[in-house]
Amino acid sequence: xxxxxxxxxxxxxPDGSLLIDAIxxxxxxxxxxxxxPGLSVAGNCRICQVEVEKMPxxxxxxxxRVTEGMVVHTASAKAKESQQxxxxxxxxxxxxxxPVCDQAGECKLQDYYMEYGLYDPKxxxxxxxxxxxxxxxxxxxxxxxxxxxxxxxxVRFTDEITKTHEFGIFNRGDVSELDVYPGMExxxxxxxxxxxxxPVGALTDRxxxxxxxxxxxxxxxSVCPGCSRGCNININYERSxxxxxxxxxxxxxKPRENAAVNRWWMCDEGRYAYKAIDQDxxxxxxxxxxxxxxxxxxxEVARLLKAAPAAKWGVIASAQHTNEELYLVRKxxxxxxxxxxxxxxxxxxxGPQDEILLRKDKxxxxxxxxxILDLGAANGAASVLERARKGELEGLVVFGRDLSKMxxxxxxxxxxxKVRTIVYIGSAQHATAAAADVALPEACYAEKDGTFTNxxxxxxxxxxxxxxxGDARPGWKILSEIAAEIGEPLVFSKAEExxxxxxxxxxxxxxxxYKVIGxxxxxxxxx
Length: 527
What we know:
Blueprint (H helix, E strand, L loop, with lengths): L1 E5 L2 E5 L5 H7 L23 E4 L6 E2 L10 E3 L3 H15 L16 H9 L18 E2 L4 E3 L9 H9 L5 E4 L6 E4 L12 H5 L5 E3 L11 E7 L8 E7 L11 E6 L12 H4 L22 H14 L5 E5 L5 H14 L4 E4 L21 H8 L7 H9 L5 E5 L11 H8 L2 E6 L4 H5 L2 E4 L8 E4 L4 E5 L12 H12 L8 H11 L8 H4 L4 E2 L4
């Protein structure tokens, strides 16, 4: 370890570590553009200038190693002057178009000018113009060369992370410009990340571009439900206007740093899946008796389930559901009603996988479902559906899944012709929801609290960002009310209470609560 001093305070940091990392560890603000902890050090923006005693001139913190006894000043007159000079050079050819730039409000050039700039300009306003102004370089990203400060983050991302090598910096001097290589297009599975790491308005997300000013956005920490990786995300939602059916309440998803899960990235598949939150949603209650209130619907479903012969009914659970909801599925159907035919959609059947983040299993909670439901190898969704197809079941309760997309073509029609009653509980309006006799609208992941367990056994929180659409309710609330109506005291006022009961009964979750899980998750203890 090296003992150093930063702005008059002593710190002990790993010997040979980067000075900028030591400054971050000290929670001291220092401007930077090219430096990113997930990428190699380029040292080309030069704004992270600091004064180090016994050195003749200021140095860049991103490419300087700490040594024993180093004394560093990040806000001295000498350091501030160097930062201002660098910032003026970066702005020399930058267009002054902040009011019409979509990056305004989260632009580091704009922010740092107010914090570290405020200088008297020495350059005239004859700015070098670049060729490409708001040009699409791929399906997801727009490039504005005039705004680029040549930090090279995007170049290093496509070289080092995706290894697809789309970006390069061409020409020299003040006519240098960022572009994709001739004949190439930015269309890798992680292209949206270049907009996240671009510190200015050079690379912007075509999906979010001019949709909303960022100061009208709220943000909530959550987890992407797109696959079993469980990437940490921030849900950015509209908080300035009431919900309207023609406007998405959730405006975008952004990756949230978690070194143990997704680091700083997320895939495009998960990033743009937020649109499903407001598309093809089931928002109203539908029952055979015409119930329109939750109280009446719960009574009707409870009567139906109590009267159902256990051996003649089956349940299709979903690994898209939270640990809390799967726990109540088990309590209601396996422990209380004693139904023998209970299954869920098995892992590893859904899509592509890569070495970065994408997992073949597109369910966020397969690991949780396997432990909580504890069905063994024989009782998957396929076996339950086969019984229904053969006419061995009189009724079926389906959570979320669309049977028309499971198994062979025509499966839903076969099941519907053989099964007398189908109860659907889910958020999506699809073929199975339409075919069901009873359909109860459920809140999606952005509209409820709970936890998912990823493929590595890390239990992570999801949190409600927006209120449920229409009449929808969280699945744990629907199940607890059904259980109470049947006669089992499983009434909970919030998801946290369900998780406490789960942790008390399931050894894998022993010792966990929402506080222990926190914002980075906690790994369960399976023995």
